[in-house]
C-alpha cells in the first residue's frame, strides 16, 4: 500500500483511564504526513495520549494502526514505525548518548547518511557524546532525544513538549529541521506543546485535546 491509500496513523475508539481519572474515551483521529499540533491545557493528558500511541501504555480499548500495521496484531513492526521522543531518557541514565544512538539505530530505519552528524552539530552535542546520561543537564538530554527523533525514518514521530528547556539556537535548529522533513513528507509529526510553536513551522493541522469531564 502507499501513503495515499491510508493515513500514516489511525486511532480508532481509543479509551484509557487512570484510577478515578479518565483520559480518553472512544477517541478517534487520523494523521497524514506533516506536522499536527496537539493543543491541550496543562494536565489534560496529552503526554498520556502520546504514550498510548507510542506503546509505552496499553489502552483499555481501541485500535492503533501506523503505516498499515496494527499495534495489537504486529506490535514489533508497529513499534519500528513509531518513534516517541523521550525527554528524560531514564532507562539510559548509566549509558552515553552514543549508546542511546546505537539503541535507536537497532530499532528504527535511518534517514539518509550524514543526518546524525548534522543534528549532533546543530544541537552542539559533540562534547557530551561520551558522558553518562545522568551527567547531562535536562536541556542536553532533550537534545540527545531530539537528535534521534530527527534522524530516524518512521511513519509516526511523537514529540512531547520538544521546546522545553531548549536554548534559542537549538529551537531554531529543531524548527528548521522539522520544516524540512515535513515538506519532504513520509512522516506524521504529532507535537504536544504548551508553548507556542515557532511561527515559520508549517503546522498542517491542530487537534484540540481536553480532559474528559
Automatic annotation (TrEMBL):
InterPro entries: ABC_transporter-like_ATP-bd (IPR003439), P-loop_NTPase (IPR027417). Gene3D superfamilies: P-loop containing nucleotide triphosphate hydrolases. The keyword Ubl conjugation does not apply. One of its GO terms (molecular function) is ATP hydrolysis activity. Residues 9-210 form the ABC transporter domain. Keywords: ATP-binding, Nucleotide-binding. PANTHER family: SKFA PEPTIDE EXPORT ATP-BINDING PROTEIN SKFE. This is ABC transporter family protein. It comes from Roseateles toxinivorans.
Amino acid at each position: 500500500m502507499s501513503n495515499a491509500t491510508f493515513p500514516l496513523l489511525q486511532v480508532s475508539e481509543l479509551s484509557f483511564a487512570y484510577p478515578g481519572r479518565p483520559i480518553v474515551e472512544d477517541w478517534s483521529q487520523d494523521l497524514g504526513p506533516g506536522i499536527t499540533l496537539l493543543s491541550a491545557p496543562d494536565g489534560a493528558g496529552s503526554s498520556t495520549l502520546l504514550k498510548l500511541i507510542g506503546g509505552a501504555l496499553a489502552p483499555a480499548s481501541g485500535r492503533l494502526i501506523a503505516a498499515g500495521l496494527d499495534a495489537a496484531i504486529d506490535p514489533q513492526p508497529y513499534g519500528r514505525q513509531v518513534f516517541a521522543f523521550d525527554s528524560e531518557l531514564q532507562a539510559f541514565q548509566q549509558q552515553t548518548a552514543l549508546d542511546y544512538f546505537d539503541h535507536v539505530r537497532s530499532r528504527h530505519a535511518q534517514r539518509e547518511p550524514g543526518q546524525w552528524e548534522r543534528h549532533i552539530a546543530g544541537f552542539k552535542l559533540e562534547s557530551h557524546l561520551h558522558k553518562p546520561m545522568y551527567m547531562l543537564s535536562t536541556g542536553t538530554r532533550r537534545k540527545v532525544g531530539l537528535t534521534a527523533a530527527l534522524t530516524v525514518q518512521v511513519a509516526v514521530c511523537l514529540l512531547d513538549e520538544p521546546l522545553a528547556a531548549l536554548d534559542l539556537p537549538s529551537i531554531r535548529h529543531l524548527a528548521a529541521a522539522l520544516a524540512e522533513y515535513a515538506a519532504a513528507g513520509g512522516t506524521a509529526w504529532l507535537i504536544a506543546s504548551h508553548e507556542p510553536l515557532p511561527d515559520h513551522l508549517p503546522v498542517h493541522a491542530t487537534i484540540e485535546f481536553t480532559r474528559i469531564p
